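[job 0412] stage=complex_fold ligand=zinc ion status=START
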Amino acid sequence: MTIAAPAKPARRAPRSRSSAETRIVRSIGEAIADRRLPPGTKLTEESLAEIFGVSRERVRKVLLLLAQRRVVTLIPNRGAFVAKPTAREAREVFEARRVIERSIMERLEGMPRPLPAEMLARLRDHETLEDAAEQAADRKAMIRLSGQFHLLLAEFAGNATLAGILADLIDRSGLAIAAFERQSSHTCSAEDHRRLIAALAGNAPGEAAALMIAHLDAVERQLDLDTKPETRIDLKAIFADEPA
Ligand SMILES: [Zn+2]
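[job 0412] stage=complex_fold status=DONE, emitting structure tokens
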């Protein structure tokens, strides 16, 4: 299989989208993913247009795209908000992840042994980055890297459709975790990821898939259904470094 040219999830950028829209989608998407914009935050068109130096029409297009990915909710006459999943939606997202990621692990387990050295090297390099982020207590990097680890496995499994669905589910599980996590922990344990890599490098049938299910169960167990007090978010402060 080819490792150097990964199958990119198809949802990222329809060809017709302008580069400004792509940039804004990415900036807002990242701010949602790393929890600077928590679930329920109001995304005012006027502020975003000013922050990113674009028209309100363009902001509306961006918000529509994010709504299609279910990370933003559009409420008539009230505007756009960072999606706030219900407890039921949170459970559904994790259930969907277990189905998809079990399949991804089974595909990887079915690959000829030994696994390509380059694949293992990339997984271990990623693990080193996760360790460094954990030691530095860099929460933003930890969240980003833990999502990337799961996408890396999907990419190696070689099914771009599964990888694309998983990319959306990872964004939505990030929102579920932000909405329901018990304390300010991060999504994944680097130790779990290390054990997953070891299981893939070894060859015990079913072990890596079982570990993945246990790992996702552990992440889901961090959730608590108690609601949190609302906090006011200053959009201009969040995007202070954005070039207009
Ligand atoms: Zn993980």
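The beta strands are 42-43, 72-75, 79-82.
[job 0412] exit 0
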